[in-house]
Amino acid sequence: MHKTTQEISGKFKGADILSLGQFSASDIHKVFVTADKLKPLRQKSKASNLLSGTITSLIFYEPSTRTFSSFCAAIKQLGGDTIEIHNVASSSVAKGETLSDTINTLQSYSDLIVIRHPEAGSAKIAADTASIPVINAGDGTNEHPTQTLLDLYTIYERSERLENLTGVIAGDMLNGRTVKSLIRGLSLFKGNILYLLSPEKLRLNKEELEKFSKSIKLVEISKTQDIPKNADFWYWTRVQKERFTNEKEYEKLKHSFVLTPELIKTYASKNTYFMHPLPRVGEIETNVDLHPNALYLSTQMKNGVYIRMALAALALGKIK
Ligand code: NCD
């Protein structure tokens, strides 16, 4: 069955969640309100039968710790069941099965599919194949919408708004899918400015920069001295090693910008909070972890479960 990537426009039941581009501000609000409702179940480890009788297939062609386990936790907390393919080498993918054959199989056994895949556009191919909803858990360098929804939820909790924010995004703009989805997400709201701090070689490609700049103010910077001192948040990211063809080039660029207590002291305000989608591989010093405004090891991770509970319940049509 062929489906185009549709705007959600308030209709979550049966919807694929592939890109932040499908969401309006009110769709994002709906996800937040649903997450607020479901959150106490996880916080109090309370049994729920909201998703009982449903099965969600998780198929991850790339490594994952948080996205995979938080989806599992979210579904199980709501009483749903899961088929978990974390290591595709143990599935028929290793025998050369095509993505659509694999997706066809999983849709025969389940009600919802969550997929991570190294190729940009693969989640869309999966969604076109399946007649059940598909959630993109990261497709190559393209998008990671569920990460962005939890990031926006975290920003909203902390700043009490999604408008008129000044943010710094650091790291790998070229290859980082969390960056692309976050830019799309914040461009739905008025007055946001994002400073993109990266080595020149890891800037957004020209096309993307032009496209995004139509709806949000982006300022590319390559020196820490250009970080604005009034930022609401800093969103640090890892240089995406697996997207490099030249390992030496990766080694040269990987620690171009490291988040340290000194950097915070020099350029952050006392209210600036610090985010990272994780995993980190040396770009945030561990002595930043205890900073009261460091959210990456605590709030952001927990919010990942609440947001994924909301998305699964909405896509399966189990909550209004
Ligand atoms: C991110 C991803 O997979 O894009 N991880 C995650 O899901 N939190 C970020 C990354 O791998 O750098």
What are the main properties of this structure?
320 residues; alpha/beta; five-stranded parallel β-sheet; four-stranded parallel β-sheet; 10 helices; 36% helix; binds N-carbamoyl-L-aspartate
Explain how this protein is built.
The chain is an alpha/beta fold and 320 residues long. Helix content is 36%, strand content 14%. The strands form 2 sheets. Strands 7-6-5-8-9 form a 5-stranded parallel sheet, covered by helices on one side. Strands 2-1-3-4 form a 4-stranded parallel sheet, with helices on both faces. The radius of gyration is 19 Å and the shape is globular. The model has no long low-confidence stretch (mean pLDDT 96).
Summarize the structure.
The protein has 320 residues and is α/β, with parallel strands linked by helices. It has helices at 25-43, 66-77, 99-109, 122-129, 145-159, 177-186, 206-213, 247-253, 261-267, 299-315; strands spanning 55-60, 81-85, 112-117, 134-139, 166-170, 193-197, 217-221, 233-236, 273-275. N-carbamoyl-L-aspartate is lined by residues 66-67, 138, 144, 147, 177-178, 237-238, 277-279.
